[in-house]
Amino acid sequence: MARMLPLGPLRGALAVLSLGLALPSFAAATAPSLTPYGLVVLGATRVSDGVNNLDVPVFAKEGGTQGMSLTARQTRFGLKGEAGPLASIGATLSGQLEADFFGGFAASPTNDAFPLPRLRHAFAKVTWRNVSVLVGQDWSVVASLAPVSALHLAVPGLAGNGNLWARLAQIRVSAQFGDEAGLKVGLDVAAVDPMDTDSVDTSTGYVFAKTANAAQKTGMPAAEGRLHVSYPIGDKRAVLGAGGHFGKERHTLGSGSDKDLTRWLAAVDLFVPVLPQVELSGEYYLGTNTEHMQGGIWQGLKKTFDATDKTKLTGVANIGATGFWGALTLRPWEGLLLVGAYGQDSAKKDDIGDTARAKSTTIMGSAGWVFDKRFTLAVEFNAVKTELKNGKAAEANVVSLGSTTTF
């Protein structure tokens, strides 16, 4: 269900041939072991009013209607593997390849049945005793937690409502030191793809050739880091983390001149296994232009255009944002999972236009039963309220029934 607490995503292993070819002595001696896996997901969702996405709603919209959806496009599949020891450098090689069907729809009258695949994870990882290097696409280093959700599997729960998330191509170095029976301290630093969702033209519906977005025009990757400490409580570990993201963007105005912007965010995260059956988790963030991680209620930039030519960009500025979420997870007995959560995201009103989203909140509650750790039935309720700067607001109640089958 969504990202697993406390450290976020399911992390696996797929041996990558390019690294194996770079180390011929190892490749000749040890064949990678691969393990296929998957999660078959069927979700039935009913919304009372307008939302941004019927399958997995994030925020409410004015002028919408009630609706329902029955879909399997959150289904995912992948390969994990352990390639064994790299004797020449005293390390081990691992990796993961994973995809789902949340990449949009083909232009077809029956497109509901033809969802497009989407890459989730594709990375190789070299691990020493206390240090690892990861290359490929994986979860962002910052804000690595998420509430357990029966509805939000392709998109984490409370996304756009205080929960930042992204999967990015990156080069990441991680180090962790300490005692397994006591305090551990870890540090992750990464150079990541400077994704910028606000400056990409999606009007054509399909793009094959990649062109530089505003962040990539700077010629530099973005930087991320997270410092975290953990301590054992029972058979789990309490984790406190703090991290940040820093990047640049270059926007070309209609006059032909460039406008450079700096974007940043800082976040803290906490996971506490209060009792074997009780867990508390949450995050808080603040920053500017955080849309690439669905912060600011999916808003990153305020753009102004020429009064007589609405296609001519005359100005661009960052939108400041802040958000938080908290969740209580209960496992009163084996098989039963109960979750209650609240999330809130706010855009700085001085930075947005009158019709822009100023605040979005979600109250979430779910109950699920896990049969033999393989099959789950769950029901979830989300009450979503989104307010605009001009004082108008939209609300939607979302009821979801879902089943997940793990293999």
Note down, in words, how this protein is organized.
- The structure is a single chain.
- This protein is mainly β.
- It has a single domain, classed as Porin.
- The protein has 2 helices and 19 strands.
- It has a 16-stranded antiparallel beta barrel. A two-stranded antiparallel ribbon has the order 13-14.
- Strand 18 and strand 19 form a beta hairpin.
- The protein starts with 16 loop residues before the first helix and ends with a strand.
- 41% of the residues are buried.
Q: What descriptive keywords fit this protein?
A:
407 residues, mainly beta, Porin, 16-stranded antiparallel β-barrel, two-stranded antiparallel sheet, disordered N terminus
CATH level-1 class: Mainly Beta
The DSSP helix count reads 2
Report how far the terminal alpha carbons are from each other.
14 Å
Q: What radius of gyration results from the CA coordinates?
A: 22 Å
- Which fold name is given in CATH as the topology? Porin
- Tell me how many strands there are: 19
What is the mean pLDDT?
A: 89
Strand content: over 45%
**Can you summarize the main beta sheet?**
16 strands, antiparallel, barrel
Order of helices and strands: HHEEEEEEEEEEEEEEEEEEE
Describe the SSE topology:
Layout: H1 17-22, H2 24-29, E1 33-47, E2 67-71, E3 76-86, E4 91-100, E5 118-127, E6 131-139, E7 167-178, E8 184-192, E9 222-233, E10 236-252, E11 258-275, E12 278-288, E13 301-305, E14 313-318, E15 320-330, E16 336-347, E17 357-371, E18 375-388, E19 393-406
Antiparallel strand pairs: 1-2, 1-3, 1-19, 3-4, 4-5, 5-6, 6-7, 7-8, 8-9, 9-10, 10-11, 11-12, 12-15, 13-14, 15-16, 16-17, 17-18, 18-19
